[in-house]
Amino acid sequence: MATATGARPAVGVLALQGAVREHVAMLESAGARAVPVRRPSELSHVDGLVLPGGESTTMSRLLETFELLEPLRERIAGGLPAFGSCAGMILLARQVLDGRPDQQQLGGLDVVVRRNAFGRQVDSFEADLPFAGLPGGPLHAVFIRAPWVEKAGDGVEVLATVPDPDDPPDGPRADRIVAVRQGAVVATAFHPEITRDERVHRLFVELVRKA
Ligand code: GLN
């Protein structure tokens, strides 16, 4: 019974690579009907789309192979609500630093991201972050070879930053931006889908309902 504006919106999960199952489960319990998306016909039937974590260079290549790159760019430019986690954030960014020269961007977010930004010693780490607009206190965030947002345009709302306890307050990692929103496009450098906390997915499903 789900329709474009129904109580359970159809939210796609780009299913070429990466943490697909985790997002599907989270979306279902956050009130959406989750739909794996591998081809343009599937993309055309969803009311919103999650771009999972994984490897942005691989996903970029697979987007071309599966002929999804242009249809996806068009839908995002047309206002499709999108939520990218980690590699998904990289794909949605206007520009990527430390990417592969042939890696493709989907656009949607007026940000410059730096890939694998947190460096080797902290390839993976966890932190509790205040997250703007989420009721219920800080969010437990898991970072895995995560990017950060190096520059955000005027229309971009910063939702969370990560302080690094080992850094001086003005150190290179201090207060880096790790969650943003621009209109109906949300992105996190971390992976809400691998925790039990559904709040970010609920926030996104709410955005899809309103769109
Ligand atoms: N470092 C990966 C990339 O460049 C992202 C890692 C992740 O999604 N966990 O795409």
TrEMBL record:
Family note: Belongs to the glutaminase PdxT/SNO family.
Gene designation: pdxT
Catalytic activities: aldehydo-D-ribose 5-phosphate + D-glyceraldehyde 3-phosphate + L-glutamine = pyridoxal 5'-phosphate + L-glutamate + phosphate + 3 H2O + H(+); L-glutamine + H2O = L-glutamate + NH4(+)
Species, as recorded: Amycolatopsis echigonensis
InterPro entries: Class_I_gatase-like (IPR029062), PdxT/SNO (IPR002161), PdxT/SNO_CS (IPR021196)
Annotated pathway: Cofactor biosynthesis; pyridoxal 5'-phosphate biosynthesis
Quaternary context: In the presence of PdxS, forms a dodecamer of heterodimers. Only shows activity in the heterodimer.
Protein name, as recorded: Pyridoxal 5'-phosphate synthase subunit PdxT
Keyword entries, A-Z: Glutamine amidotransferase, Hydrolase, Lyase, Pyridoxal phosphate
Biological processes, Gene Ontology terms: L-glutamine catabolic process; pyridoxal phosphate biosynthetic process; pyridoxine metabolic process
Binding residue positions for L-glutamine: G54, E55, S56, R115, I144, R145
Biological function: Catalyzes the hydrolysis of glutamine to glutamate and ammonia as part of the biosynthesis of pyridoxal 5'-phosphate. The resulting ammonia molecule is channeled to the active site of PdxS.
Active site: C86 (nucleophile), H191 (charge relay system), E193 (charge relay system)
GO molecular function: glutaminase activity; pyridoxal 5'-phosphate synthase (glutamine hydrolysing) activity
PANTHER family named in the record: PYRIDOXAL 5'-PHOSPHATE SYNTHASE SUBUNIT SNO (PTHR31559), PYRIDOXAL 5'-PHOSPHATE SYNTHASE SUBUNIT SNO1-RELATED (PTHR31559:SF0)
Pfam families with a match to the protein in the record: SNO (PF01174)
EC number: 4.3.3.6, 3.5.1.2
CC per GO annotation: cytosol; glutaminase complex
